[in-house]
Specification:
The structure is a homodimer. The first copy, chain A, is an alpha/beta fold. Chain A has helices spanning about 10-20, 35-50, 75-85, 95-100, 120, 125-140, 150-165, 195-215, 220-235, and strands at about 5, 25-30, 50-55, 90, 105-110, 145-150, 170-175, 240-245, 260-270, 270-285. A six-stranded parallel sheet of chain A has the order 1-4-3-2-6-7, with helices on both faces. A three-stranded antiparallel sheet of chain A has the order 8-9-10, covered by helices on one side. The mean pLDDT of chain A is about 95. The interface of A and B includes residues 107, 135, 139 and 164 of A.
């Protein structure tokens, strides 16, 4: 039985009941338009928690002017079906005014980490993310929350916020999921035409090749980035926004690839902005 | 028995133990240098909670350049004695680096409410307050937290933050406390010379007179403010910074005094910045 709540007080009372039953509470915050990547988060949450809450909320404050807030997909019935199939206990799908009533005035800002990569082209985006995630943590008070490594910068930023504000929530990262053709799963993939999708596959191919080069011993970060740029930059219809070779926790630019590395890319394919990345941890010398 | 903790994990484990015993947890956040005003907060907390936590932390991020962070009094032994006398269960007195380790990057900002009154002359002050209060709420996870109405703007800002971030903490306001001579209690009063203190008493006198005028039927906010300015502005050695006649919850400027009003003043007396206020609720027509 999946319950659906639109009100904060409904969530609080359902979570309180679950706590009284001694259940561990897991939260999967999403914008809805659930895909295989989200399903992997739901399953990770189900494996560790008796009571899983999924939020479906297209958060306006993390969209910039001219971005796709209005057109972002909101397939509520399909999302609910997926949540039911995956054993989600509670879906929280609030109207905007429940989250941002008149007079709302508070922003949570993480400096540094938010300024580069996606933050450079999406000013305010991570403020919106941090603020809504802090709110969801306040509403649900979960033991653990589940985020995809696809949104690698978001994950690093949320972790920094949780550490800095001493929030008692364990942050769990789940691996990026790809469709059969290699495209990283994203709710925005449905914006792509067939031709655009074919072009977009270059991102996954470039990152797969990068993994091979790193596994074969490439350690020079500039050469790694150049390899991605050369391959993906040649693809017609793909406009690279950035290629970052950074530490996955601090997002600090690397000169040498050692121990762990995040190779992150953003590109416009037609009018659709896509991100993808390669994460390598526990790298030998 | 009052325990003293310097580490966040010590606080968490002590609070967890208290929760296991079924105790309600109250938090009194302070900068230390405890006075009668703080004691009234401790007593309010003790009356409602089995387990009272007091934080003693001179929070650097709420002091501006040129303010008194370095010279702010830190009478730790005296503070601990007061906490013991008042039945405080746990004193949290962290070193600065426990609260702000290297790499700390997060700020909680409340817009609007923080821009006027004390916020106008102390840019960043309320960001520092909100961030440290959010941290203390994250560390202690209290059922209720106790603040003085002396810091009326701080109280309004913290309430807004708690509401906006859906923090599950009840905010309790305790009345402003005055010394026998009428000066509002403040850790900064000890900076005053005897002559300065005598001058500073004009603030309490002006606010007492204002109360009488309002009780006698004065409803014009500009006239209320002028009355305070006339009396306190004439006092040698007292430099008024602002006189605000506002709604105590929204801090919106009032034209008419109705239902409830906060008359707040800030002044420099010598080199010491003092604040004082008059709060009237449930005012008849």
């Amino acid at each position: 039985m999946t319950a659906v709540a639109g009100k904060i007080r409904e969530v609080r009372s359902a979570v309180l009941e679950a706590r009284r039953r001694g259940e561990r509470v897991g939260l999967v915050p999403t914008l809805g338009a659930l895909h295989h990547g989200h399903v992997s988060l739901l399953r990770a949450a189900r494996a560790e928690n008796g009571f899983v809450v999924v939020s479906l909320f297209v958060n306006p404050t993390q969209f910039g002017p001219g971005e796709d807030y209005e057109s972002y997909p909101r397939p509520m019935e399909k999302d609910l079906t997926i949540c039911r199939q995956e054993g989600v206990a509670l879906v929280f799908a609030p109207p905007t005014e429940e989250m941002y009533p008149a007079g709302f005035a508070t922003t949570v800002h993480v400096a540094g980490l938010t300024e580069k990569m996606c933050g450079a082209s999406r000013p305010g985006h991570f403020d919106g993310v941090c603020t809504v995630v802090a709110k969801l943590f306040g509403i649900v008070r979960p033991d653990a929350a589940y985020f995809g490594e696809k949104d690698a910068q978001q994950l690093a930023v949320v972790r920094q916020m949780v550490q800095d504000l001493n929030l008692a929530v364990e942050i769990r990262a789940c691996p990026l999921v790809r469709d059969a053709d290699g495209l990283a799963t994203s709710s925005r993939n449905q914006y792509l035409s067939a031709r655009e999708r074919a072009s977009a596959l270059v991102l996954g191919r470039a990152l797969a090749q990068t993994r091979e080069r790193i596994e074969a011993g490439e350690r020079d970060a500039a050469s790694v980035a150049d390899g991605v740029r050369r391959l993906a930059g040649d693809e017609p219809g793909v406009a690279l926004e950035y290629v970052a070779v950074v530490d996955p926790d601090t997002l600090a630019d690397l000169e040498r690839v050692e121990r762990q590395v995040l190779v992150a890319v953003a590109a416009k394919v037609g009018s659709t902005r896509l991100i993808d990345n390669l994460l390598v941890r526990n790298l030998g010398d």
